[in-house]
Design brief:
Layout: E1 3-4, H1 7-22, H2 36-45, E2 50-51, E3 62-66, E4 73-82, E5 85-97, E6 104-113
Antiparallel strand pairs: 1-3, 2-4, 3-4, 4-5, 5-6
Pfam families: DUF7668
Organism: candidate division CPR2 bacterium GW2011_GWC2_39_10
InterPro entries: DUF7668
Length: 114
């Protein structure tokens, strides 16, 4: 079942987005399948500057539950905003429930043109 993301999922996504906007890729490495060099390469090859997406964009973002995970995990594809516009540079994330309050951590699974 595909779900609309909630505010706590949005917060976890925003944290990764902020790292990419600031270009401090080492902060993303604790929870990433990609190396710092891989992230830098993809971002540098894509023309433009990563921006923060408007809040209204999150109406289009969906979370897909990953079956058989405990704690529950969700797959999310998030199209990054470049130079103030939605782009085809897609951030694939895995959100993991971290506590009983429903907070999440986000790990970068992939960064690619879709």
């Amino acid at each position: 079942m595909i779900n609309q993301i909630d505010e706590k999922m949005k917060k976890a996504i925003r944290q990764v987005e902020a790292i990419l906007v600031s270009k401090d890729y080492s902060d993303a490495m604790a929870n990433s399948r990609l190396t710092t060099e891989e992230i830098e390469k993809v971002v540098s090859e894509y023309c433009g500057k990563i921006d923060v997406a408007p809040d209204s964009y999150f109406q289009n973002v969906k979370a897909i539950p990953i079956a058989g995970t405990d704690p529950q995990r969700w797959a999310v594809d998030y199209d990054l905003w470049i130079d103030g516009k939605s782009s085809d540079l897609t951030l694939s994330l895995e959100l993991t429930t971290t506590d009983s309050a429903g907070n999440y951590t986000a790990s970068i699974e992939d960064l690619h043109v879709q």
